[in-house]
Amino acid sequence: MVQDEAAASASSSVISSPLQFFSSMSISPGSPYTPWVQELKSDERGLYLIHLLLNCANHVAAGSLDQANSCLEQISMLASPTGDTMQRIASHFTEALARRVLRSWPGLYRSLNLTTTGIADSLAARRHFFDLCPFIKVACLICNQAIMEAMEGEKVVHIIDLHTIDPIQWVALLQALRQRPEGPPHLRITGISDHKELLDVTGARLCEEAEKLDIPFQFHPVLAKVENLDVESLRVKTGEAVAVCSLFQLHCLLASDDDIGNGFRKFHSSPSPAATHSNNKNTVQLHKIMQLTQGTLGELLEKDIMANAKNAYSPDSASSPFALAPSPKMERFLASVWSLTPKVMLVTEQESNHNGATVNERFVEALNFYAALFDCLESTVPRISPERMKVEKMMFGEEIKNIIACEGGERKERHEKLDKWVQRLDIAGFCRVPLSYLPLLQADRFLQSYGCDGYKLKEENGYIQICWQDRALFSVSAWRCRRFE
Length: 485
Description:
Belongs to the GRAS family. The chain is an alpha/beta fold. Helices cover 48% and strands 13% of the residues. The chain has helices at 5-8, 12-15, 42-62, 65-78, 85-102, 106-111, 119-132, 135-150, 168-177, 196-213, 273-290, 297-309, 328-339, 359-380, 386-405, 418-427, 437-449; strands at 156-161, 186-193, 217-223, 241-247, 344-350, 430-432, 455-460, 463-468, 471-481. Strands 1, 2, 3, 4, 5, 6, 7, 8 and 9 form a 9-stranded mixed beta sheet that branches. Strand 8 and strand 9 form a beta hairpin. Helix 3 (42-62) runs antiparallel to helix 14 (359-380) and helix 5 (85-102) packs parallel to helix 15 (386-405). The radius of gyration is 24 Å and the shape is globular. It starts with a helix and ends with a strand.
């Protein structure tokens, strides 16, 4: 094994650990499974799984099927959807990598008739996530308070909800509007969804609540996907003060239909020079990881894997803070929203770069991001919880598969960090509305009442990030057309 300076100074306890063999092990086709792997402690097994996953991702990207298959076989013996944090993560990333391999043969892939999570199960999983973790609740609380402040004194308010799946956010807003000193406005909510039953349930629930609170109210359902939305169908009227709320929707508009199939090619036996270079960089990184004996899994992923893997990215990749991947759909959509002259637009998005040009970029970013989410559930919810398992499989697992296994228009989970959204919205003619201290205070108090120290908030330049430990997972920002400055 090649030794670097850190390896030379490693303690004898590290040298005697089986971890010293991980980065030098040759994973060759048909190699026998090593029995001592089953005897690894949880932390050691987690490190070994990271090693296998990164190697597998490199082999998949390079088109080395035999090597990828060998990695997948070894990972499958250690991963488990009901095990510890790293075992659960590995089970979902392994499935994503396997699906990507299969998609290189469209006929084989389609003939297997691989199932995806249905709408009912998906909605149930998201509701469980809403109940188990405060992230979405906090985002809704912040958005509602920002709407209240932007609409102060307005008599006719029109809220456009870009993704209507649950009435709970707007029930809370109705109750808050009822307490306004000047009285509630005439409220109109336009709900957008491609599932009629969701619109029907939401509309009925909100009309019932508005009647109980004696608030003049209208619910306008629009049966459509946000990417196909016609702004004329929103029926914005003269004199209405408009608010637009986007909860995890804008990133879906970054997908493009013109690059379907990119990244899928017939596997060959030897990696390309570029892939070999990337693999060598990851091997050096793995040497450094295996020399660590302290720190949490999250710290390893954050401080070491990410720091070195990013050095292998091309300067013009989508992960670069200076480059924006072109997105005609996004540009057209934001132009349409701007034409509605909203007083405020609230944007909540995942705080991670899952829109990289290569699968390697996305794999490392996704591993880092979802490790924090899995760790959050591990710290707050029992492992045997059926609700937790549904969230991990039907929500996180589906997102991971989409990020890793899909390309082109099929890849919808194209999350980008806040700095990219700032650029996109600025180019589209929007300016920042600094979120006031009040929603931050309310959200902070809510998190404190949740009884877990791991949930935190960060405020910077008027934006709010919702964190697990020190890792920002979601961002909330407010915008308005520049004509309102």
